[in-house]
Amino acid sequence: MSKRKSSPLWNHFEEVVPGKKAKCGYCSRVLAVSSSSIGSLSRHMKSVHPTVQISSSRQPAITPAAVEAFDGDIIASAEPAAVPSSSGSVQGEDHRADNALFVRLGQRPTAAAPTMADYVQSKKTLPRHRVQQLDEQLVRMIAKGYHALRLVDEVEFRKFVEMLNPGYTLPTRKTLSESLLPKVYNKVLETVKKQIAKAAAVCITTDAWTSCVHDGYIAVTAHFIDTETHKVCTVMIGCLEFEERHTSANLKGFLEAKFQEWNISQFVNVIVSDNAANILSAVRLGGWRSLPCYAHTLNLVVQGSLDALSDTMDRVKGVIEYFHRSHPAKKKLVEIQEQMHISPLKLKQDVTTRWNSTYDALNRLLRMKEALIATLAIMRPDINLPQDDWIVIEKATEVLKPFYEVTTEISGEQYVSASKYIVLCKIINRSLSKYSPDGHPKLERLHNALKQQMAQRFGDVENKPLLCEATILDPRFKKSGFSDLRNFEKAVAALKLRIGSDRTLTHVPVQEEATQVPAPQPPKTGSIWDDFDEEISALVPQNPTAAGIVEFDKYLDEPLIKRSENPLLWWSDRKGVYPRLYRYMLKRLNIAATSTACVVPIARIFPVIRGSCDIDEFDLALKLVSL
């Protein structure tokens, strides 16, 4: 057994059944092995993974590079005085770097401390399991930190790692992409699939976009509640180049294939996407429930209302573009800000498809107001903004600020968000009712447009069952999340029936789930308890529907918790008290209010990795980042 375990082939396989079966770390194929031979493993690597190098370990190269890197790192208190030698050199200089190194290692240096090369030579090779741990962490660092794969080829980075641990040698880029990356990906994939298989329900968010090189991509993310940790988990189950036309039929087929691949077809309870007609049609064709992305819809509300400020926004964009194009103007703006003792800031551009960018652009303009006016007066007085525009900008940011804060609040993926959908609409409408345009015609048009857009796009939000149920089942909101009490009462009545009729929430056999079955009378035993038992039997729930209603009424009577508290932890503490409601809650509070989880990670990784590796490396790195 010791011979088999010492073979370098075991760096690429995991023993599943001791002495009988082993699983490949790259393709997850399980192979039969005997107690005396591992030839099947060798044949598999040569035929299926011929590019993977089979070696016992990577020996560290012994070079003076690490010594040179320490030339400036001197700890004076740990060194003897330097004495000139007969040859003109200074004795002690050769030991400075070594002394500094040994002080950092916790060893006491001496005047005749060994050199760095001696230390490396005397350092034993790391154990195989330790090298595997370091390799795996290296892959995770590159993927999760959005680093380029060429990092392992950087000379200074290799020096740094050698100085940290001379017994470990960084893998080459080829080893990283062809060996380590697939191995870690398969390991992580297997873990995530086991985790998602335990989910009671899965919410899907999806989005498609075109890259800067005009390649079409589509991403699919799954959201579910981990019943062990009671945390909202997010996993990107697919992100790949979509070469077919983005028709509803093609998108439907893609989603179905992805759900089957992950074995979650029966657990998908809702799909959240933007308001594009093709994806909405694809969701309808697939028979799934649809929910519009809150942030995307809110962005449409703002963009559809800014026509009221069209002339002011045109002049603002002209000023921003001028400073982005003109280097002398940009330099002058920085100089004037420094003269005014202001930390230099740069103007931000408004991008129609980027959420919150309008507010960011206007708010940054206000922060730089004095410096901008002074700079434009010197450089381009013809495009300087009039005083009326500055008034419009200042008042417009006031009315847009709630939209900015709500978009930021709703876009998180590590906490419950669907239950805030209705509540945040209520908050925005309340802020609009308090806003005063001060009789300015442009601001009045903006105010009216925002109210009209909110009514058009969110007017029926309290009639959407998924959102109503999520709000009610959040112990922070319940009834207080609704603007209209009638909508709350209607949602409560429907939810009671749904909880009582949902057979997945109880273990009672189907034939025993007849609703409203009269309670059987207790038999007469001649005991003194007979009269009491007969009286109380009508009050004891005898079927799941009645039990569900009792649970629900008791839950509604519970006091609200603070908004800062975690509703999932509250449910975790009370899952024994409300077993049916708890299982139903897992199907509602897992819903994500926005599809930002599909966009943000890829937007970060794309410019970093795309230009530094080939398409196969990029696709695999993209998959690993998503997990």
List keywords for this structure.
627 residues, alpha+beta, Nucleotidyltransferase, domain 5, 5 domains, five-stranded mixed β-sheet, three-stranded antiparallel β-sheet, 26 helices, 9% strand
Summary of the model, kept short:
The chain folds into 5 domains: 1-56, no CATH class; 65-122, no CATH class; 199-292 and 595-626, Nucleotidyltransferase, domain 5, CATH 3.30.420; 299-462, no CATH class; 473-585, no CATH class. 51% of the residues lie in helices and 9% in strands.
Query: What is the distance, rounded to the nearest whole angstrom, between the alpha carbons of the first and last residues?
Result: 35 Å
How would you sum up the major sheet? 5 strands, mixed
The average pLDDT is 80
* Rg estimate, integer Å: 33 Å
What is the 3D shape?
A: flat
SS-derived structural category: alpha+beta
- The total number of structural domains is 5
Count of DSSP helices?
Answer: 26
Q: What's the β-strand tally?
A: 10
The spatial strand order of the largest sheet comes to 8-7-6-9-10
What helical percentage do the residues reach?
40-55%
Low-confidence sequence ranges: 59-111, 507-519, 601-615
Q: Report strand %.
A: 5-15%
Question: What do you see in this structure?
Answer:
This protein is an alpha+beta fold and 627 residues long. The protein folds into 5 domains: 1-56, no CATH class; 65-122, no CATH class; 199-292 and 595-626, Nucleotidyltransferase, domain 5 (2-Layer Sandwich), CATH 3.30.420; 299-462, no CATH class; 473-585, no CATH class. The protein has helices spanning 2-6, 39-48, 65-69, 93-104, 116-122, 128-144, 155-164, 173-197, 248-261, 277-285, 294-305, 310-325, 327-339, 357-367, 369-379, 387-410, 420-434, 441-458, 465-472, 485-501, 530-536, 544-557, 567-574, 579-585, 600-609, 615-626; strands spanning 13-17, 21-24, 30-32, 83-84, 90-91, 202-210, 216-226, 231-241, 268-273, 290-292. A 5-stranded mixed sheet has the order 8-7-6-9-10. Strand 6 and strand 7 (216-226) form a beta hairpin. Helix 13 (327-339) packs across helix 15, helix 17 (420-434) crosses helix 19 (465-472) and helix 25 (600-609) runs antiparallel to helix 26 (615-626). The longest helix has 25 residues, at 173-197. The protein is flat and about 90 Å long.
